[in-house]
Amino acid sequence: MGKKVCIGLSGGVDSSVAALLLKEQGYDVFAMFMQNWHDADPTLHGDCEWEEDRFVAEMVARKIGIPFYFVDLSKEYRQRVVDYMFDEYSKGRTPNPDVLCNREIKFDAFLKIAEKYGADLVATGHYCRKETTTDAEGNTVYRILEGTDPNKDQTYFLCQLTQEQLAKAIFPIGDIVKPEVRRIAKEAELPSAEKKDSQGICFVGKVDLPTFLKQKLESIEGDVVEVFNQYYIDNEHYHFLENTLKELRVDGGEAEMVAPFAPEVKLLTSDGEALGVCPFDLKKVEGMSDEALERLATPVKYDIAFETETYRSGKKHVKKVRYKENPHGRIVGRHEGAHFYTIGQRKGLNIGGHKESIFVIDTDTERNVLFVGEGHLHKGLSRSCLRVRPDEVHWIREDLRMMVGEMRRYRVRIRYRQPLQSATLICRDNGLFILFDHPQRGITPGQFAVWYDGDEMLGSGVI
Fold first, then answer.
1. Domains in the chain: how many in total?
2. Annotated catalytic residue 48
3. Is 315 exposed, middle or buried (0-12, 13-18, 19+ CB in 10 A)?
């Protein structure tokens, strides 16, 4: 009998086909369905109830002919994923619960229970591939590669896994494309064959995020301030960013400050495209001080103050108060709490009277002010450099960890559905800096920046 494998069966088509393939490959397979939420818990109510998922998962296990177990991990999920989410949002950051769920739950709490049942490995329905290599000392090293399906690569969600976790992981559908997964499921008459892909918070179901956050975070009304172009013309920090990027350019041309708008391309996996020629003089980048790099990675902050004036209105000349016109911006609305919004967001703002879409460009949770800008090309949406704190840098390939003072060229993504972007990574005492060849839209604190060498994911860090 082959190795004993526990498949995390969610009731979806991906994990169902993963289970079927493992069985066909001769593994000793058993399924475990995890509950991460209690409906009795007042914090969350999704319309994708877990009972239905469990029912489908159980039917799939029966159809394949493998043992089925149920495990309640709601306590661990609350402590290690949900509490973290609330904490991050309260600080004005935007966490990624799916990344946390994989690191803390599927490949930790869930894995430990699977091992108690005798599992050697834990399998999931992620679209990614795992390979084995050796380091300079001859030790076994696990590589995690993008999935074969260019539309479904899910390595991003596994960006915080360790070598120890990867040693116990297996991804049976990583080299199969989604339509083929559906075909296999239909052919095998699996009950999940026609089931739609799940949306929403990892293993909890479809949940309206603001409603979810309002359970714990207080709604406090505040101003929505639209920032005008004049603010950047008069802002000292914006000039520093522009001048620094200009000085670093190889061609001595103007600094690129705004990311051109292109709807995110569907193709996710590395397409064999080379990193491209870096537009910056890497000797000059190397010569920058830690302080200058940190300043380059610091976004523009908005300190627009509004003064009031009294005026008389109507036939009776009633005394009224209004804000004086300000060339830097104006108050365009009210919000229910700055911590409910994220950079780059455009839905749910309810601000009219503009030709183009309105986007969130910054959230000030201390003053409870939301800053917005009009149009995809608004200067506040783009940044060229970000910093990951030293204690938040995670290397999947520990043997390739960068040393302080080292610089490397990699391709990076700052959110799940983003095509890879060419960048220079600079390792310093005060953090790992990522300088993109071209400005990036919506760099969001709390999210994960993930770097790749070809199709291999090497590491990640919290922005």
1. 1
2. no
3. exposed
